[in-house]
Each structure stands twice: as structure tokens, then as C-alpha cells.
Recover the amino acids of this structure.
């Protein structure tokens, strides 16, 4: 089975539509979303509609929970809090109710799905091998996916060995058939690994193979949408350099 794994869309419709077009060309059977459908971008309603229509598994992320009022905006940066308040004002009540019903953790086809980490699916960033080691000890599944950090990564713990990890670029592929794995597909809507292209991952559960993908999209259009919504200019500017 071929599965597209997406995370951290953050209301960036330009990036999401470009990724969904790529996904369609790959003849995937399922689409999994690891959360933060809304957040920094200017098109939260359209992004919610797309994911509701097309995704087979959907988690909520911390920004989704901020918009629905489940998390205090005091826990977020100034730009994130401003974007969350704006999103609260424009988000359709039906989409807000849908987001509120989602969980930050789940499982599909014996694969663990977490927005943050297996230990703390809301807030924890899995960015080091040491932290991945602790997460492997917590995770009941052999393979798991995380989002939240906006960085494409993989961590592996072969049997009897310590965990190791590395950043992943578009086109990188790994064999998941042995060992324990935690994978981050990177961010669709706001990558933070110095590559401004939208990030996602293609998983093949028949071959137990994962490949990271990057998709070109209309960055200037996404930036214009943010500025037209009168959101902080920094949220538009960072899209241009992938940070």
C-alpha cells in the first residue's frame, strides 16, 4: 500500500494544493495528516476542507488546539498567537468543531502517528538521537511518524544498538523492513530546513520503504495571501528561505 504522509500545513493552501497534485500523480491509496492544518497561513478554511475531503487519518497539532481554545495562546510566540487569533475569527464553525474532535496521536496499519512525539504528542520535538531513544522506549509500534518540528528527519534503532538520526532531503529513501523507526516528513506549509519547497513523504507498506519528497509551489502567492490578511510580515518572509 502506498501512503502519502503530510504534516504542518499551517493554512498554506498554495503549498497544500501543489503537494496534493503530486500525491495524485503517485497513485497513493491513503493520505495521513499529522496535524497543524491551520496556524501561520492565510487559508485555514480551504486547508481544512481539502484535508477533510482527502485524508484517511488526521491528527490535531498544537496550533490547531490553540485555534480551538484547547491550549492557551500565552504558550505561543507572538506571531503564532496573532495568527491563531486571526484564524479563530475567520475559521468556519464546522471546521473548528472538526478540529476539536481530533486527537494528537493515533495509529494506522500498525504505524504510530504522533503530532509531537510518542511521549508527548502535543508539545515535544523529536530532534535528537537521545530523545528518539526515549521515544522508542515509549512507542508500542515498530514504525512511527511525527511532525511538529517542520524538519524532515529519520531516526532508527537497530536491534541491540542505540538510536541514530539524520536530516532528510528530497529524494532520500530508507528501508524500514528491520529495526525501529521514527520518521518526520517535514512541513508542507512552513519548512524550516533551509529548503523552501513543500515537504512530504511517500510510504510503501508492502516494501516497507519510505521516500522524502519536495514539491515546488507558488511561494509568492502564499506570501501575498499572508500580507493581504494583515498577518505578521515575518510569516510571509520566512517562506522564501525555508525557515
Amino acid at each position: 500500500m502506498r501512503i502519502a504522509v503530510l504534516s504542518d500545513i499551517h493554512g498554506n493552501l498554495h503549498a497544500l494544493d501543489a503537494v496534493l497534485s503530486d500525491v495524485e500523480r503517485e497513485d497513493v491509496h491513503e493520505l495521513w495528516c499529522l496535524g497543524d492544518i491551520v496556524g501561520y497561513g492565510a487559508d485555514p478554511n480551504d486547508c481544512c476542507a481539502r484535508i477533510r475531503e482527502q485524508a484517511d487519518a488526521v491528527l490535531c497539532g498544537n496550533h490547531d488546539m490553540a485555534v480551538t481554545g484547547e491550549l492557551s495562546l500565552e504558550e505561543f510566540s507572538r506571531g503564532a498567537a496573532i495568527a491563531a487569533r486571526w484564524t479563530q475569527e475567520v475559521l468556519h464553525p464546522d471546521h473548528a468543531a472538526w478540529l476539536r474532535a481530533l486527537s494528537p496521536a493515533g495509529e494506522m496499519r500498525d504505524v504510530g502517528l504522533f503530532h509531537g512525539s510518542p511521549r508527548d504528542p502535543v508539545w515535544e520535538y523529536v530532534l535528537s538521537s537521545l530523545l528518539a531513544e526515549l521515544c522508542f522506549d515509549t512507542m508500542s509500534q515498530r514504525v512511527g511518524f511525527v511532525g511538529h518540528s517542520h524538519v524532515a528527519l529519520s531516526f532508527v534503532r537497530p536491534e541491540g544498538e542505540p538510536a541514530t538520526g539524520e536530516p532528510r532531503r528530497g529524494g532520500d529513501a530508507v528501508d524500514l523492513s528491520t529495526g525501529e523507526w521514527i520518521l518526520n516528513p517535514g512541513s508542507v506549509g512552513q519548512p524550516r530546513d533551509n529548503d523552501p519547497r513543500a515537504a512530504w513523504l511517500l510510504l510503501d507498506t508492502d516494501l516497507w520503504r519510505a521516500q522524502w519528497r519536495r514539491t515546488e509551489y507558488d511561494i509568492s502567492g502564499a506570501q501575498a495571501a499572508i500580507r493581504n490578511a494583515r498577518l505578521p510580515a515575518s510569516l510571509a518572509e520566512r517562506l522564501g528561505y525555508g525557515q
